[in-house]
Structure formats: C-alpha cells, structure tokens
Design brief:
Blueprint: H1 6-18, H2 21-28, H3 32-46, E1 51-54, E2 58-61, H4 63-83, H5 85-89, E3 95-102, H6 106-120, E4 124-131, H7 133-141, E5 147-151, E6 159-165, E7 170-173, H8 187-190, E8 194-198, H9 203-213, E9 219-224, H10 227-235, E10 241-243, E11 257-260, E12 270-275, H11 282-302
Parallel strand pairs: 3-4, 3-5, 8-9
Antiparallel strand pairs: 1-2, 5-12, 6-12, 7-10, 7-11
Helix pairs in contact: 1-2, 1-3, 1-4, 2-3, 6-11
C-alpha cells in the first residue's frame, strides 16, 4: 500500500462533508486541483473508488468512501485532540464540531448546546445538520457529522445509542378541553375528539398503529411537521395532539396541559447516536456531557423524567 497522508484525509473529509470538490477546496483554503489530486492519491493508495462525480449534483461517496470518511474524520479528530492537548489541560477545547439534530428536537437541543460551547469552549467551531432521523444519521455515517440526537424509534442499525432521557408520548390539551382534567387518558376516549398530529415518520405510523391496536380510529383533522403549529392549534382548544416534549405555553402564549396515556405505552427515549466502533473524541465526549446536563436540568424543572 502506498503512503496515506494526513493532508489526503483532511481533503477527503472536506469532500465527504460538502459533497463538492469546489466547497472542499474553499474550506481547506487550497485549489480545486489540490483536492482532486489528494483524492486521486488516496484512492490509489487504498485501491478503491471513494467518490463519484455526478454532473450538476456534486460528489457522491461510494460504500467504500462512506466507510473511509467515518474513519478519516476519527483520525482528524484525534489530530485535533493532540494539537489541543495543552488547552485541554486548562479545560479548553477547539476544532470543528458538527451535530445532527432531528428537526422536531432542534428547538430543545440547539439553544443549550450553542450556550454551552459559546461560554465554555469558544474556540470550538459548532455547526448543526437538521433533518429527518434517518437522514441525519446517514450524513453522520458518511462523515458529515460526529454524532446525532434522535428518538429511539429512529435509530439506524449501524449506529451506537447513548441514552439521554427516557421518554414516552403524552397527550397535550388546552386546559379547557373536556379530557384535560383526567389523570390518564385512553386512546378510545381520544378517538372521539379532533386531533392534530405530527406529520413525521415513524411517529405518525406508530400513532396510527397504536390506535388500530386499541380497536379505534382517531379523528385526524390536521397534520403538520411543525411542533410549534401544533402547540398553537392545541392552545386554541381546536384539537389535541400526541407529543414527546412538554412545554407550559404555546408560542402564542396560551397554556398547555399534558396527560399520560393509559395502558402499556412504549418508550421512545431521546438518544445520542454515534457511528458504531468509532472512538469518541474529546468534542463528542463534551457534547454528551452538555446534553446530559441539559436533560437533567430539564427533568428537575418539569419534575417529571418521562415526558
């Protein structure tokens, strides 16, 4: 095998993350020719095609390229850790950190992480990739993120889970809803009232399956991918919904009431998903610390861990 250089891995990691030789060159402050040459040399050294140029669509990683991208990022992170070893002695971190976030969790994940790293580790270049659960995990496995925050039901087989918070769906009502005063609510009771449901998979599929298992069909009046829109509709007492995260008020300032469901409701906990078999960098370890601290504080504030 011919020699593999750190520069080749750096340029290839940039190509994997940006899906573009042009953008990779900009990120690395070199010419496109230098990136293309490094990619060709790396492919020759490994004896495999790592990326395919698509006309008008940038670069697409092959299966081999995706595997190498994950390991190349790990090497890059270890070099960053080595370079910042002295800073870490003083509790400081530096380097680029990309976190994938399931879009309905972004409201609860991004602000505390921005706060954490801005105040504790200002030298860290923090960025986020938002999208559907499988989408952001695929981006991580392709080397475009170091970890993801998803729900348990969304975890891909090639990802290793780290529990952040145990969670179950609850019903959210306006306090004026006729079922809002009950301690627990059954699916049969809910089926008699209009609902607005989150239009995301697998959440919607799981919800419909649970109603079917209970022998009833929900009266679904609206569907939306916006949790904030659901909060506002529920706050106006126009429908109920089933959600994972508890908030006291809708964006319009109307109060919301959460109630647990009757029966054996499966958990759908909040997880950090990491590439299986990859050694965690100091940045990833600090992110997990920040997320666990956030959920611990959230639990204390709500007085309820299963939300």
């Amino acid at each position: 095998m011919k020699e593999i250089t750190l520069r080749q891995l750096e340029y290839f990691t940039a190509v994997a993350e940006t899906e573009s030789v042009t953008e990779a060159a900009k990120r690395c402050n070199v010419s496109q020719a230098a990136v293309s040459l490094a990619l060709a040399q790396l492919e020759e050294a490994l004896g495999a095609t790592l990326a395919i140029r698509r006309r008008g669509k940038g670069m697409a990683l092959t299966a081999e390229g995706q595997a190498v991208a994950t390991r190349a990022r790990q090497v890059a992170e270890q070099i960053t850790d080595l370079a910042s070893a002295v800073d870490q002695v003083h509790g400081e971190l530096s380097g680029r950190l990309v976190i994938g976030v399931f879009r309905t969790l972004a409201l609860y994940i991004i602000p505390p992480l921005v706060d954490w790293f801005t105040n504790r580790h200002p030298q860290v270049e923090l960025d986020f990739v938002e999208g559907a659960g499988p989408e952001i995990q695929e981006a991580m496995l392709a080397g475009r993120a170091q970890l993801c925050v998803v729900y348990e039901a969304q975890l891909l087989p090639d990802c290793q889970p780290e529990l952040l918070m145990k969670a179950k769906r609850q019903v959210v009502f306006s306090p004026d809803h006729p079922l809002a005063t009950k301690e627990k609510v059954s699916l049969a009771e809910l089926a008699k009232h209009p609902a607005i449901l989150i239009d995301e998979e697998p959440a919607l599929q799981r919800t419909m399956a649970e109603f079917a298992k209970a022998g009833v069909e929900p009266l679904v009046r609206w569907r939306t991918a916006s949790v904030q829109a659901i909060h506002n509709v529920v706050g106006r007492n126009l429908a109920y919904s089933l959600l994972m995260q508890r908030v006291a008020f809708s964006p319009e300032g109307r109060p919301l009431t959460f109630r647990p469901l009757e029966g054996d409701i499966p958990t759908n906990s909040v997880l950090a998903a990491l590439p299986a078999g990859v050694v965690r960098s100091a940045l990833v370890a600090e992110t997990l610390n920040a997320l666990r601290t956030h959920w611990s504080q959230k639990t204390t504030a709500t007085g309820c861990r299963t939300i």
